[in-house]
Fold these 2 entries.
Entry 1:
Amino acid sequence: MKQFYTRGTDNAGIGSQLMAGCTTGAMAVAFAQPTDMVKVQFRAQVRGAERVKRCSGTMDAYRTIGRTEGIRGLWKGCGPNITRNAIVNCSELVTYNIMTAFSAGFISTIVVFPVDVVKTWFMNCSAGKYNSTINCAVTMMRNEGPKAFYKGFMPSFLRLGSWNIVMFVTYEQIKMPVMRSQQSWESLI
């Protein structure tokens, strides 16, 4: 589907990804709707006030629905189910993109923050307080413990996490036309 919406290129923008997600979700629902209908029927007979057992098993449920509502009855509620699945797929895709960028920001902050804190302390110290950045780091550890290396972590992470979301989403959107123009340029050579 992605290739259908991107016209065969490997780079899909968020719009193409959302459309591909909606289409594949719709196809999956259309295929699996009879099974969902049977599941709903079983839930209804368990939760119903009358608690009347309408079906004795899965195959009996398919037969009962087919007999009482016709073969089309197995696809009853397919439209709302497609809508539901499209919303699920889109929200998962958007969440995946945002969480990926946010996670990248979190991990980068964890990894780089101690170096950043030592750099800041060393740059802000009075002349002669530390004879090197290593001396600064060792003194911080000795005097304040490992927590000293993560002072101010949360504001820094929130800044970098939100910046990463904007940066990675923008990067993906800019990358596509650049790749297309590069491919066009290379085809001329």
Entry 2:
Amino acid sequence: MTGIPALFTTARSGRFSAPTRSARAAEALHLDEWRRLFEVNLFGHVAVTQALLPFLHSSRGRIVNISSVGGKVAMGTYGAYGGTKFALEAVSDALRRELAPHGVQVVVVEPGAVRSEMGERGAATANDLAGRMNPEHRQRYGGLVEAVVAQSLAHTRNGVAADKAGAIVAGAATTRRPRTRFTIGRDAGLITRLTRVLPDRLLDRVIASGLRRYA
């Protein structure tokens, strides 16, 4: 069997794969939309990996799963998106431990803010979805959704250039002895460190403080 040197898995959906596109409070996001997001952001990765693993075994290749900083900390309104990314992190850990004895490596890439058109389109979609919330949900969560989307858009506009992000992904695939995880952007590196050292309540306050300027 002909092998392949590396498999990259990432999610791409016209409506819900990007975090801002699914920025809805858990109470306000229809269960069908939760399921759709998990199909794209989690089960799609698993399906492709299962299909191509025989070729990776043949070449003793490498899987590079594109996750997100959202797989380390879940902002309010990102429950569904964060749930898929936390799950992908867990699947990647399990795969790494299952496949290491067979010579197949598993690496996770956790991007933060990356400058791209997807961020602008995601914000427009999120605002459109927020406008469809019923009056009760809009009263409870409308301000939060608007602040989260505004913050995300500001970070995206000041984020890492797409070509630099691509170089990090390429390095994750080609480095001879890769780390198990690579972050992209200072925001991603900072957030992942904070999740390791701060108690949950203090992290909640840090996140809430960061949102205030966008409220």
